[in-house]
Amino acid sequence: MAKYKIDPEAPLIVLSVTMRGEDIEKKLDMALDTGATHTTIPWEVAEVLGYEPAVSEDRVTMVTASGVERVPLITLKSISVLGKDADNIQTIVHNLPEKSYVDGLL
What we know:
CATH architecture: Beta Barrel
Number of strands: 7
Distance between the termini: 18 Å
Order of helices and strands: EEEHEEEE
Number of domains: 1
Strand content: over 45%
């Protein structure tokens, strides 16, 4: 198992995560959000992985700084982080603010 040392002074815990679609994978830098209900990835990444969030019938309500939104929910084939794999991960598709410095939330 991979080891990760947490810097107690850092404002975020950022992890390198590999996301997998049917025939492609993509690495993302994601913030570990211990209060998040779902993993969150941007629209562009979902589409690169072969998903079509715009036509997803599954939607969830998400509270953001700008209000309440209904956002697509997709199921990723798998993710890998810190040497561990997980399959069939329900994931919200929503772009984070440009200056968030991470690609998504884990």
